[in-house]
Amino acid sequence: MNAKVFMPVIENGDEGLMRPTQVTVNLDALVNNFRAIRDQVAPAKMMPILKANAYGHGLVPVARLMAGLGADYLGVAVLEEGILLRKAGIQTPILVLGGIWGSQIPLFLKYDLTLTASSIEKLHQIDQAAEALGVTARVHLKIDTGMERIGVHDYNAEGFLEAALQCQHVRVEGIFSHFANADAADPSSAQLQLERFQEVLRFYERRSLPLPMRHMANSAAVLRFPEAYFDMVRPGILLYGVYPSAEVPRTVQVHPALSWKTRVVYFKVTKPGRGVSYGWTWTPDRLTRIVTLPVGYGDGYFRAMSNKAQVLIRGRRYPQVGRICMDQMMVNIGWETAYNGDEVVLIGQQGAERITVEDLAAWAGTIPYEVLTNINTRVPRVYVGSETYQQMIADPQG
Length: 398
Ligand SMILES: *Cc1c(COP(=O)(O)O)cnc(C)c1O
Known about the structure:
Blueprint: E1 3-6, E2 22-26, H1 27-41, E3 45-46, H2 51-55, H3 59-68, E4 74-76, H4 79-87, E5 94-96, H5 105-110, E6 115-117, H6 120-133, E7 137-144, E8 152-153, H7 157-166, E9 170-176, H8 188-206, E10 213-217, H9 219-224, E11 232-233, E12 258-263, E13 266-270, E14 288-293, E15 310-313, E16 316-321, E17 329-332, E18 343-350, E19 353-355, H10 357-364, H11 368-373, E20 381-384, H12 387-393
Parallel strand pairs: 2-20, 3-11, 4-5, 6-7, 7-8, 7-9, 9-10, 10-11
Antiparallel strand pairs: 1-20, 2-12, 12-18, 13-14, 14-17, 15-16, 15-18, 16-17, 18-19
Bound molecules: pyridoxal-5'-phosphate.
The site of pyridoxal-5'-phosphate has 12 residues, from loops.
């Protein structure tokens, strides 16, 4: 199968010589997820969220795909992610969602990135920096309706919105807020946040001013709060085919785009009583076949999953045993057969069996978001899927 590979060290033509531990990203799945969400939220606009290396799927390729599909806006967390996208030739508007560091404002303006203004002080810093450079800054105002992270509290927002009107070198293009509990079983606190945001927005109505672009919905809100779609939605995890929690209704059908595979690199038989790996936390009680895999916590396969995780080999589930090391780990195949070079699935499907991101999250005591964003950049990403989408993610400079 034709596939585009992103691993800077191995040159094109030598892909077959890459390390066998690889993430495969299915572009068709990403496209289907994007379209399923867009169909659900239309006519609201789409801002795919691409922070943290596009939830581990690869920042630039996913951004090119989303831009190619007609995403209206792209969302990242930090300035540097936005600059990487501009340097990759992406021209779609980009909002940096996180709090800004004052001295970086000129770089936002240089790379035509939209700033999040989260206080009157930051607003003035942006205004002054834009004046000094002789440009107009594109800004989205951040309202805190209950996250207590960044943004001006809804009950203090009037003065903030007022101040924004006075800034000569700022164009308030958007206004937004963020849910703290949209993925919880009980929807009441999310509804409260929604009402607080709506109250803030009445400012524009009272003054007969045009509304900036309003946005609030993360993935969980896309699934269950149509009232929160406003003018644009900000789906992250759902775009990658993973549901934000087990509590939310699955009103949009999505499918995981990422799988993570490696291969058996070593086979041995261990004797009863001889402990395996650091600390000898697991010891066989009979003659047992053990295979070694070239993947470990240095790749993002959490050490906390030691003696809990399972992998797929030859279509069957086997337990990982002993401590997960930085770069390697061992699997107990009992008295079954496996050979050097056999494919091993860490996340994804093999035969009739499947291991999900949710499985890893449960074994590690965390959430799917952390599993995905922790897959290290030293794991090459391989992009498979239709030729049209392969072309969309290709470097326009060749
Ligand atoms: C991360 C993030 C999102 C996306 O959240 P998901 O739960 O992945 O959909 C949306 N908005 C903001 C401000 C975020 O930080």
